[in-house]
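Allow me, if you will, to draw on your knowledge of protein folds for a short while. I have a record of one protein: its chain in single-letter code and its fold written as discrete structure tokens. The full record is reproduced below for your convenience:
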Amino acid sequence: MIICEGLVKIYRVAGREVVALQGLELTVEAGEMLGIVGPSGAGKSTLMNVIGGLDRPSAGRVLVEGENLSEFSDAVLDCYRRERIGFLWQIPGRNLIPYLTARENVELPMIVARRPARERRQRAIELLEAVGLAERAKHVPAQLSGGEQQRVAIAIALANRPRLLLADEPTGELDSATARTIYQTFRRLNETLGLTVLIVTHDQNVAPMVDRVVSIRDGRVSTETVSVERREWRDENGEARKDDDPLFSDGSPLSSEELVVVDSTGHLQIPESYREQYRIGGRVRLEAAEEGLLIRPAQMGDKGKERQGG
């Protein structure tokens, strides 16, 4: 499990401070496949860097499997990055060494971790089979398509058996069909290995591909979208449905529900679509009802009534 509590990250750029994370709160369950979306500059990649141990927060803390990353020494943090986290970057070339074959690329993290040669070779072959590229083991990156390069990169990220995979815009350079193949690979590994997967993306259509989507705006989690049927779908015999495609066989997407996140200080961000549809802005009226708390636009006369009452 990953728990982010009150995360703050401040950078100094050209003599001024830039606040990338502003008290962000987030919990990720073990084995969850989570999408992280939001506009450029929202803090998505900064969050990934902090969780991945590439950066330390200015305030707040990250707990991974109960351990506080801020308490790690540099040496322990190096080991954490090398053996407990798998990274996948947007540009395939950043993940691969161009003059090494696919198998040699997958072996490289294990060489750094000083694994025995026989173990390295066997593990590399197993991983290439897992991502569907066993027959491309002797090919160098230039002989692979963009999607194949990213699948090799996934194998590299898993070389040292991490329990957490962080993918920063992994499909940003790929067409939609190839991107779907990458998401299918993530899902298959998530289910077979119990791998926790965090995916940063600009793709607003990621919801059917993952268990949950969190939207980050201004350095905070603003909303969540949960794919309900992914956990509940069964076939006509009552057996759990295991499709290769993250969509149903008829092409219809999984349904989802959108949740608004209330942080520890009571703040929430209502999605823009709802604000526009219900004309919510500035002052609002809160009403306690049997089904829960209702938020309504303030009536025109509310301000005058408040003055009279005051």
About this structure: The CA atoms of residues 37 and 215 lie 5 Å apart.
